[in-house]
């Protein structure tokens, strides 16, 4: 058989047609040719355990998705100005997973488009412009989404904070100002946020946050935080938006949606990534009242949003979560996975915190016996795991948090392999240092 091209040839080819603004993962990028469930295959005969990609929610190249998508592509793929079953079949199934008040859905093609639309809904419903956003939050790549994403606009190369944005401190009980996560920290952070809302010269249109701040380093909002903040937003006529692009669809184990852990019901929910297992789809779920305000404006139309192929795929994802009990698996395997990381934390002082829930976990890498981020060691771990055929990533304001959020078919044996391998990477690291 033909000798495979060296990786540098692939890198050079890609650089020729692309721009360095599109990054590649790892010091040694991977040339991928295939994937199945929680495994990915490179062009050199290697198999990687995927402990990172949350988009192939029910597993890479899932055969049910392949079957349904092929059937539907061969039958009808068109836009929502025609009536077809898949649209309301999926809409009904999706809405049945939400509290009763959230009874209306709009389909788009990405999380970014969903964030953008959520901003339009907020403006249409409230006639206000001011948006309160979360420190380190990320909501997408459109101009509007960047404007509400502290993670991007606050970057040293970013565009800076726009005048209509209020930025509130992340209610982080590990590194933040208040650290007792029994509800008291959540209340204290909320009081600070409420003060900002009350001090605003202009009324609030919306408050947007993820329930676990992903790009911020997998930081769960302090207990009870939203319960206190939401009423203050609503008192000004504003709406509350939960970005569930990363956290939705059972990944958190205990809950199907992240907002449920905070015992609140948002006015708008943004969905993306896992919704169609990698097929490009996003959605905005809202109330009738907000949808009615929006419908007084210009027509809403998305060429691809809500097409029958997307709806059929998304319905298959929901069915598979249920029939294979994937939320339950996220809970059981996620709890075990966290317990293994916690055991490792007892052995190594460079692990400062293990957090998250279900199969959405962050491991904070710090300078020994401190809470100072250790970016270099986090990168070392990430790259060494990659060299040992395990995919994880790093994120957070200092890029020092190990992120793991695998497909939900991840097993206990997979979890053990990740943590055992990380243990051997750390062992080697400390041996080489003495
Ligand atoms: N919201 C969150 C929380 C996200 O993590 C992302 C993507 N990383 C988005 C929105 C944007 O989604 P997309 O990349 O599909 O536009």
Mean pLDDT: 97
CATH architecture of the largest domain: 3-Layer(aba) Sandwich
Order of SSEs: HEEEHHEHEHHEHEEEHEEEHHHEEHEEEH
- Separation of termini? 46 Å
Structural class based on helices, strands and sheet pairing: alpha/beta
CATH third-level topology of the largest domain: Aspartate Aminotransferase, domain 2
> What is the CATH homology-level superfamily of the largest domain?
Type I PLP-dependent aspartate aminotransferase-like (Major domain)
How many structurally independent domains?
2
Number of E-state strands: 17
Anisotropy-based shape: globular
Family: Belongs to the class-III pyridoxal-phosphate-dependent aminotransferase family.
GO molecular function, one term: pyridoxal phosphate binding
Cofactor: pyridoxal 5'-phosphate
Keywords: Aminotransferase, Pyridoxal phosphate, Transferase
Topology:
Blueprint (H helix, E strand, L loop, with lengths): L6 H11 L14 E5 L2 E4 L4 E4 L12 H11 L11 H11 L8 E5 L2 H16 L3 E5 L8 H5 L2 H4 L11 E4 L15 H16 L4 E6 L2 E2 L5 E2 L4 H11 L3 E5 L24 E4 L10 E5 L1 H8 L12 H16 L2 H22 L3 E7 L2 E6 L9 H13 L2 E2 L1 E3 L5 E4 L7 H22 L1
Parallel strand pairs: 3-15, 5-6, 5-7, 7-10, 10-11
Antiparallel strand pairs: 1-2, 2-3, 4-12, 8-9, 11-12, 13-14, 14-17, 16-17
Helix pairs in contact: 2-10, 3-10, 4-9, 7-8, 11-13
This protein binds 4'-deoxy-4'-aminopyridoxal-5'-phosphate (PMP).
The site of 4'-deoxy-4'-aminopyridoxal-5'-phosphate has 15 residues, from helix 4.
Keywords: Aminotransferase, Pyridoxal phosphate, Transferase
Cofactor: pyridoxal 5'-phosphate
Protein name: Aminotransferase class III-fold pyridoxal phosphate-dependent enzyme
């Amino acid at each position: 058989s033909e000798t495979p091209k060296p990786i540098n040839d692939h890198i050079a080819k890609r650089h020729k047609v692309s721009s360095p603004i599109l990054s590649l993962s790892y010091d040694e990028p991977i040339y991928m040719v295939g994937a199945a469930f929680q495994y990915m295959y490179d062009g050199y005969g290697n198999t990687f355990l995927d402990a990172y990609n949350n988009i192939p929610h029910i597993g890479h190249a899932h055969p049910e998705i392949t079957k349904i998508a092929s059937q539907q592509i061969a039958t009808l793929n068109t836009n929502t100005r025609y009536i077809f079953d898949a649209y309301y079949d999926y809409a009904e199934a999706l809405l049945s997973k939400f509290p009763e008040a959230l009874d209306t859905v709009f389909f788009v093609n990405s999380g970014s488009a969903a964030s953008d639309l959520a901003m339009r809904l907020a403006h249409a419903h409230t006639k206000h412009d001011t948006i309160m956003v979360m420190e380190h939050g990320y909501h997408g790549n459109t101009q509007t989404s960047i404007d509400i994403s502290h993670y991007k606009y606050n970057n040293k190369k970013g565009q800076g904070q726009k005048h209509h944005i209020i930025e509130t401190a992340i209610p982080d009980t590990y590194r933040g100002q208040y650290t007792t996560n029994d509800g008291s920290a959540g209340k204290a952070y909320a009081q600070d946020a409420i003060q900002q809302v009350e001090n605003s010269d202009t009324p609030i249109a919306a408050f947007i946050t993820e329930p676990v701040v992903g790009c911020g380093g997998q930081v769960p909002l302090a207990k009870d935080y939203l319960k206190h903040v939401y009423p203050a937003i609503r008192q000004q006529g504003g709406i509350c938006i939960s970005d569930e692009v990363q956290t939705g669809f059972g990944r958190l184990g205990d809950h199907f949606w992240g907002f449920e852990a905070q015992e609140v019901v948002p006015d708008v929910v943004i969905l993306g990534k896992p919704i169609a297992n990698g097929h490009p789809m996003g959605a905005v779920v809202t109330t009738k009242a907000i949808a009615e305000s929006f419908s007084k404006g210009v027509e809403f139309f998305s060429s691809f949003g809500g097409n029958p192929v997307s709806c059929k795929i998304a319905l298959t994802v929901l069915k598979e979560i249920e029939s294979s009990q994937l939320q339950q698996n996220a809970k059981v395997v996620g709890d075990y996975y966290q317990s293994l990381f916690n055991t490792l934390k007892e052995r190594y002082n460079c692990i400062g915190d293990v957090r998250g829930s279900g199969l959405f976990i962050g491991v904070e890498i710090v300078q020994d016996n401190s809470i100072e981020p250790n970016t270099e060691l986090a990168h070392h771990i990430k790259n060494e795991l990659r060299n040992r055929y395990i995919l994880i990533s790093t994120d957070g304001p200092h890029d020092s948090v190990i992120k793991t959020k695998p497909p939900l078919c991840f097993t206990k044996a997979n979890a053990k392999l990740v943590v055992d391998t990380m243990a051997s990477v750390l062992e080697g690291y400390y041996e080489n240092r003495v």
